[in-house]
Inverse folding.
């Protein structure tokens, strides 16, 4: 039996509608803080999930997200930012949201019950062996999410489930189950609040740690970013200058030589003969910058 804490009444809910605006907002803010704290208990599971995601992506597979309603919006927010932040190719990411494109206009409730749509979405995205699907549902019993993760598993994909209730149906189809034990919502059942906050934090943590495993992060820098606007091109220059110990002018020139690839430019700054040589070093180190820099430093010492 699922423990539906997400539908229970919060301890501060009684008389909420007659409280002062300041008091209501204080209750809401504190509820968000309580929800964020709940993520700490899920750290071991999130770490396991991140390793699984990284392994599938490194092996050439794709990462898919499946969810409905507010959980779907959390999934979309995480998925859409991965290419720009970590340079993960857009065709390696699939977003399955109940209601399809129309969900971005209406977010109607009905599609979350549509198991046929979920099955079709998994099949059309060709999710299968080598891929990884993350299903998100606050209740843990949303039919769309349950169908999607079950179908993905049967097709051979690795599966991760994120839910906010113990004993969630979703967990039965998951290789890794992430329980976010958020307290009842201040507005009962409105999981866009605390549960959604915890989901957003957990997804940020999961995808960021996966990116670390894949070598897309170095000393807190997003060294695999796609520099496709003025702000990001400037950030790329600053990263090459800071890590490579070069002036901004040199960094900009090296980025030009590297075709805009930050890690390659940094290796050029460190002494790689040319962009092709830098790319070969990165291939040998699994795209990880730190051992690549050590390899160049070691070659100098010989």
């Amino acid at each position: 039996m699922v423990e539906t804490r997400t539908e229970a009444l919060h301890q501060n809910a009684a008389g909420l509608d007659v409280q002062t605006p300041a008091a209501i907002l204080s209750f809401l803010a504190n509820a968000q803080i309580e929800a964020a704290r709940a993520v700490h208990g899920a750290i071991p599971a999130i770490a396991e999930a991140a390793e699984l995601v990284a392994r599938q992506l490194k092996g050439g597979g794709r990462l898919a997200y499946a969810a409905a309603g507010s959980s779907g919006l959390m999934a979309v927010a995480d998925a859409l930012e991965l290419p720009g932040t970590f340079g993960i190719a857009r065709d390696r990411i699939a977003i399955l949201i109940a209601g399809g494109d129309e969900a971005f206009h209406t977010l109607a409730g009905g599609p979350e019950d549509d198991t046929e749509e979920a099955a079709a979405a998994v099949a059309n995205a060709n999710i299968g062996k080598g891929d990884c699907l993350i299903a998100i549902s606050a209740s843990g019993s949303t039919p769309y999410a349950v169908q999607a993760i079950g179908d993905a598993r049967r097709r051979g994909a690795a599966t991760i489930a994120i839910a906010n209730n113990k004993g969630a149906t979703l967990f039965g189809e998951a290789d890794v189950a992430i329980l976010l034990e958020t307290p009842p919502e201040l507005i009962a059942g409105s999981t866009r609040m605390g549960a959604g906050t915890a989901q957003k934090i957990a997804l940020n943590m999961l995808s960021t740690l996966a990116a670390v495993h894949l070598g897309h992060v170095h000393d807190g820098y997003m060294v695999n970013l796609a520099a496709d606007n003025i702000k990001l091109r400037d950030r790329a220059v600053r990263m090459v200058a800071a890590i490579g110990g070069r002036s901004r002018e040199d960094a900009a020139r090296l980025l030009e030589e590297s075709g805009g690839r930050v890690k390659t430019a940094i290796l050029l700054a460190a002494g790689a003969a040319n962009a092709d040589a830098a790319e070969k070093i990165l291939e040998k180190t699994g795209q990880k910058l730190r051992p690549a820099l050590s390899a160049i430093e070691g070659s100098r010492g010989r």
Remarks:
- The chain has a mean pLDDT of 91.
- The CA atoms of residues 97 and 103 lie 7 Å apart.
- The first strand starts at residue 63 and ends at 67.
